[in-house]
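Exercise 7. Given the encoded structure of a 217-residue chain, write a plausible sequence.
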């Protein structure tokens, strides 16, 4: 597996986010001949998400090449992710990892222990429907994950830990479990309350902060 830096949108006075695309359903596209979903590269994702540019952050992207189904992710890919985050730690305000949902909880748990003394947000997200589909949950998940990764309160990141954001809820990464392959609401945290809910505002629980839109950068 190769790791490639794909693109950078720079807006120097804004929050800077490193976006790491590993694969999963979110980036898939239906093969018109066979009807089978196949992995696609980050360019496909970008073409389907003009909103990324509108967010107004400095977003750099690194992608796994080829993108991986999350059933193939394991200790080697966790190490690759840790290496990417450590090498770029001081250059970015936060990190967003796009990941297949099947093993997202395992990766989030591993990263939470591997990234010692983490002081910045590492938010994993993905989707149940590919980003090119009309009813995709991917856009909402991705945009809000980036907003959360960029959010600060008095200059401090609001959630400096490894989390999963999915279907309006921010969960502590190493407490999560995938519970559903059909519903958009696919993750639960049974032994720890959600860290935040995203509605019109993103409310942290307990109410440490409310991330207003547009986000306080
Ligand atoms: N099989 C996919 C994966 O985990 C499912 C998904 O992304 O939801 O990579």
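Solution.
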């Amino acid at each position: 597996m190769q790791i490639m830096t794909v693109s950078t949108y720079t807006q120097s006075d804004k929050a800077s986010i490193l976006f790491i695309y590993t694969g999963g359903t979110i980036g898939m596209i239906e093969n018109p001949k066979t009807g089978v979903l196949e992995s696609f590269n980050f360019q496909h994702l970008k073409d389907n998400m003009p909103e990324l540019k509108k967010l107004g952050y400095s977003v750099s992207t690194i992608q796994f090449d080829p993108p991986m189904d999350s059933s193939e992710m394991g200790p080697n890919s966790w190490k690759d992710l840790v290496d990417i985050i450590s090498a770029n730690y001081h250059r970015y305000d936060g990190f967003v990892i796009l990941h297949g949902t099947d093993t997202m909880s395992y990766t989030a748990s591993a990263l939470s222990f591997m990234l010692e003394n983490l002081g910045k947000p590492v938010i994993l997200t993905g989707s149940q429907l590919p980003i090119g589909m009309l009813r995709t949950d991917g856009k909402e998940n991705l945009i809000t994950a980036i907003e959360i990764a960029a959010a600060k309160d008095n200059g401090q990141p609001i959630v400096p830990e490894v989390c999963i954001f999915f279907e309006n809820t921010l969960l502590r990464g190493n407490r999560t479990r995938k519970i559903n392959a059909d519903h958009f609401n696919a993750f639960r945290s049974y032994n720890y309350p959600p860290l935040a809910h995203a509605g019109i505002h993103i409310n942290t629980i307990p109410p440490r902060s409310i991330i207003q839109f547009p986000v306080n950068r």
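Remark. DSSP finds five helices and 16 strands in the chain. Students should compare their own answers with the one above.
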